[in-house]
Structure formats: C-alpha cells, structure tokens
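Input/output pair, single chain:
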Amino acid sequence: MLALLSATTLALVAGAPWVLPAAAGEKNLQPPENIEVYITDDNFTLKWNSRIETVENVTFSAVYQTSDVYEEVKLRIRAEKGNDSSSWSEVYSFIPFEEAQIGPPKVHLEAEDKAITIHISPPGTVDNVMWSLDVSAFTYSLVMWKNSSNVEERIETVHPGDKIYKLSPETTYCLKVRAKLLLYNKNGSYSPVCCINTTAENKLPPPENLEISADNENYILKWDYAYVNATFQVQWFHGFLKIIRGTNLHKWQQIPNCEHIKTTYCIFPRKRLSKGIYYLRVQASNGNSTSFWSEEKKLNTGIYIVIPPPVISMKSINDSLRVYVSAAEGSVKQPYPLIYEIIFWENSSNVERKFLKEKNDFTIDNLQPLTVYCVKGRAHFVGEQLNKSSIFSNTVCEKTKPGNSYKIWVIAGICIAGVFILFTMYVMKTLLRCFNYVFFPSLKPPCNIDKYLSEQPLKNLLLLTSEEQIERCFIIENTNTNTIMKETNQIDEDHKKYNSQTSQDSGNYSNEDENSGSKTSEELLQLETESPEMNS
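Output:
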C-alpha cells in the first residue's frame, strides 16, 4: 500500500449535508486519515493521508458544520473514484480563529527628501471575515535599512500613514512590515520587501523641534525655524484615525487662528480639542516655496491637563464640620474625574489627618466642641497612566459649636450645682442655729413666772414658733398696807433672796385683766406659800 499526501483547498458551503449515500463497492476505497487544517487569513487548506495505492481518477469530498470563525467546525472527508466511494473519515474538529495565522500586510511607500510615508493595508482581503473584529487591534512592526548596506538599521512600531523621519536625501531605503495581534499573541508574516529613493533636498526646510505646553485655558505650540520672512500653518489630526482601516490622510484639519502666521508659535483654546490623543504638524511657506510638513507631534490631552487648586469652605454643625470643595471661579471645567486630598488638623496641634474624597462635600464627625479646626486640600487626576495634581488650596479654619453631649453635661452640671447649693444652704442654716444656740441663747423668764407659761414649745430653743408668745403676769391691786405690813416685810426679804439668784426679769408686767378685781393679802400669802420655788 502506497501512502500518498494529498492537499486541497476547502470550499466552505453552508448547510452541506452530513450523510451522503454510499456508492456501490465502497469497500474497495479506504477513507482519508490524519487530517490537518492550515489557515492564513481567510484561506483554508486541508491535508490528509490516503492509503489508496493509485490516485489516478481518485477525488475527495469534504463536508462540515459551522456558524462562525469563533466556534468549533466539524469536518469529514471521503475518497471517490468513478462510482465507488469510501466511507467517511473520522470527524475532525477545530476552531478557525485559533488555528488562523496572520498573513503579510500590503505596503505602499511615498518619499520626501528626508522622510518616507508608509501606507499599510491590513492582512487579508477587503471582506476579510477572520479579522473583521480585530482590524483596529493590529499593530505593525517595521524593519528598515539602506539598500546599499543590507544591514537592518531601524526596527520600530508604526501605524498606517506614519512617516519615517531623519533620512538622507537621494538615498534608497528598503523595508518590510508585519502585523501583530498582541491580545492573542499572534505574529504575522512579513510583507515582501519594498524599496524607494528619497528625493533631492527641498530648498525650504520644514519647521523643527515642536514643543507643546498648556495653561488653564489654552494650548501653546512652539517650533524652531532658522529662515526669516516665512509664514506658517498648523494642522491637527485625530489619533484614533491612524488605526482605522484605510487611509485618512485627507482628514487633517486646520487649527483656527494658526494659518499664515509669522510667529514661531501658535495659541489655541483647549476646548477645541476634547479628551483624547491628537497629532499636530507645521508647514513653512515663503512666497511660492513650501516646505514639507514637520515631524508630527503627539498631543495627549491628559498629559497637558492643568488642575487649579480647589476652593474649600466649612460650616460648623454642632460637634461636626461640613466641608465643601469647589472649583476656582473662572476655571475651565475639567473633563476628567477628580479626587480630593484633604489635610485636617486641630489648630492648637501639629498632628495632621489625611484622607481622600471623591465627593466635593462631606462631613467630619466626632470632633471636640468649641474647638478650632483647619483644613486645606488639593485635587488629583489619576487615570490613563497619568498622575496630575494641583497645588494646595488656602487654609480654612472653623470653630465647632457646642455639641449635644456638651449641652447634656452643662445641664447636668447646673442640676448638680443647684443641689449642692441647696444642700449647702441647709447645712449653713443648721450650723447657724447651733451657733446661735451656743453663743446667743434666747432670754428665759424667772422661774416663778416660767412655771405658769402654758406654751411648752418655748422651752425648746431649737424649735421655731409660728407666732409670737405672750407671757402672763399677775398684779396685786388695792391691798391694805397696815394689815399686811409684816407679811410684806417677809416677802421683801424673800424677794431680795430671789433677786440675788435670778436677775433676768425686767420687772415690768401688764395686767391680765383690768376688770378682774384685786386679790387680798391673804390670797397673796397663800399663793406664795403654795409656790415651792418662792419658798426655796
């Protein structure tokens, strides 16, 4: 049996049937084996082994099922000769996109005196199905050399329509280009080598050393040019157009107020170019002579963003501070999201707290009441591999108000102080009574009079009386002096003895009852006899 390697190009026919009627004598033909598929761009190539001893008048047929290049394809092949057919081969499965290789791109060159423009078309045909979703993801690698040396001098990444600068006039350069899909780690094959001669040096050179700067409102493009009496024009180009299939060189646009200018700089508003990547170029003119365009200058708006310092204000809310962050008056609205770095500290301390906030108003809680706090901040733009920050704002300070807890403590303190004052007053009043009792006792009437006082509370000097007490006294009127002379003398002696013991009585008394009549001397003597204190 002779093994023969055969090859065919797979023609994709949608809806091809899986089962075909077997021809008579199919046992005389063996089915193909060891099927392999090779895909470049949209071209499919199938290879297999056949055990047929002679291939004269032998053909092969293939059927498949698929929906698109990203899904699995199931394929079978059989051999046919005359009216005989082999059985179908085992099912061979593959995913076209995974098996596909990137073919060479198409390259076209244009020469200047010191530069070459490279026009690149993606691999495959215009109606390429395999790479239709990945055309914009292609990157291109270039290898370039002088034809006279055959030494590869330059290797760099380019986009369709790019220029290779810093070449020599009237010199032949050769190059080749291949495409890559970095996301899938696919490297294509190189294009055929292309060669071109640069032109003679132009009498009017292009501007050089383009530089871009920016302020809050404008972009400023500057360049160098040695020749006098020249005028200039500036154009810009969308960066994303470089990676879109096809040529877009005609889409360069003139920058307003930067046409036929005599200065070596151009100022244009930042608002004319929205967020993104752009390319700028300058051309010089002098009379009827015009230079080639300068080397293109890439402008990434994110790099040249200028962030002004924010304006910060604060408002005290009890024991918290509400912080407000806003843009400076008259500043351009930033097309990028900003993050605010806030530095916060107590005015009497050097200890700082730092935190980041995405919102432009927030609250700082749990602060000490009636305390001065200070804040300053700056804005950050973080993204697209760019880090931009503003300078710090002015420092703003604010004093917190009494908080609810402070008020509760004040009320509690007032209540405690009130209770303490009442208690102190009570203790002082009690001590004052004791002091008066010891050092300033109240006057006590004589014993013979105190006996007849009916208000017992008067004997307790520590108790207050609700009303003034009236002492009762007895007065003897209309007595017979001759009859009671002797008794009177005895009474005087006893009275003198009594006065020597108690001298607190003032001796002034009032009548209890003026109309009650007078008592006799006998009654008086009887009264004195009955009184034990008088006889003592």
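Helices lie at 96-99, 404-439, 447-450, 485-501, 521-530, 532-535. The chain has five domains: 4-100, 102-197, 208-300, 311-402, 463-535.
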